[in-house]
Structures are given as structure tokens and as C-alpha cells.
Here is the input.
Amino acid sequence: MKDFFPGHGGLTINVKDNIMFIEASGPWNLEYFTELHGALIEASKKLDIKHYGVYLQLVGQAVTVEGGLEIHSAFVKKSGVKAMAVDFSRCDTTVISEVLFQKTYSLAEINFQFFDTPESAKTWLNQQLA
Here is the structure.
């Protein structure tokens, strides 16, 4: 079935040293998650899928329409990611976004941590992958 609306939100993905670096800006609609998941699958081809981490930097309004993060949680749960560091240093909606992402990654049953500086997030992520 074709989506009715284009994905709303920004996304940049880079891979280096078996870490997927993601910059995601919101707000996001449901269609965004279809695009996001396709981009994540493509980027994962550059990783050792059995031992990798994700550094996620949230930018702007990191919120979604109802159901978006539940869809994402199910996807992440199947990803096999060893650890995920979430950087809120550029997020405009930190309080509500932390609640949303806490629920998302707890449901996905992955190792994650929230940070307010890129340096602390990257340090923790590297320790988890060591």
C-alpha cells in the first residue's frame, strides 16, 4: 500500500568503526518511520551486524504522532544492536522526548542510555562496545 503522505522529519546516517551515527530531527509522522527503517537497513550493510552500536542525536522537536514509536520499538527489538547512546543536547523537547524514548527502548529490551553532551554519549557507547 502506498503511503498517503511523505515522511516528515530529517535524517542523516553515517557509519564509522562499527557505530551507526544517526541525526534525526522531528517532529515525525508515521510515514517517516517507513523511510527511517529502510535507511537503517541499508546502513546496516556497512556494519558487523553481530556487534555494533548506535549513536542517536535528536534535533529539534523529537516527538511523533501516536503509534510512531511503537512501530520503531518493534523494529529496534529485532535489530540486534549491542548499545544505543541517545544524545539530547540539540533537542528542543527533552522532557517529553526522554519519556517517549525511555518507553520505546525499554519495550525493545536494548541497552541504552541518555546523555546531554555528545562527548559523554560517545564515551559510554565505546565502553559498551569494548
